[in-house]
């Protein structure tokens, strides 16, 4: 299991764990976040979609989770039943609130592709547009929304969303920059949630 220390712009040091193989499928995600996050149950959540080879529809290829101390980046593999069972238990754990932008689309895709149900979630796009009475915030991505909601800091746009489809759909290892960008996306969702759910 590969882990990285990633320093965020606000000074927080996040331990990012990359789940990219069979030997990391037995990690208990719930315990990881409860222990490392000292009981913090808000989980920033983000996904990456890509076209699978010979498919007409996009599918989820990467899941990103983060709380104040830990980040988990999970590469979805077609043949990992243990990974799916573990993720399914994590998503169903009602102790956690999964918070991200445009959650309805992500949840629909996860339900259709992997059969996951996520009972406890907050769509930060919708919540921010209501809290600030600015409907256009509902169209923002996670980093744009962070720049609007977290006025005291700026989260720089990254290149993670511009990854080529081949990098996400094959077994290519992720560079340090890509791990940092994945962490920044999930951490931004976490910080937005902590601000809006006060």
From TrEMBL:
Stated name of the protein: 3'-5' exonuclease domain-containing protein
Residue span, 3'-5' exonuclease domain: 34-196
One Pfam family in the UniProt entry: DNA_pol_A_exo1
KW Nuclease (keyword) present: yes
Record-level Gene Ontology MF annotations: 3'-5' exonuclease activity; nucleic acid binding
GO cellular component, one term: cytoplasm
InterPro entries named among the record's database cross-references: 3'-5'_exonuclease_dom, 3-5_Exonuclease_domain, RNaseH-like_sf, RNaseH_sf
Alphabetized UniProt keyword annotations: Hydrolase, Nuclease
Taxonomic superkingdom: Eukaryota
Example of a GO biological process term: nucleobase-containing compound metabolic process
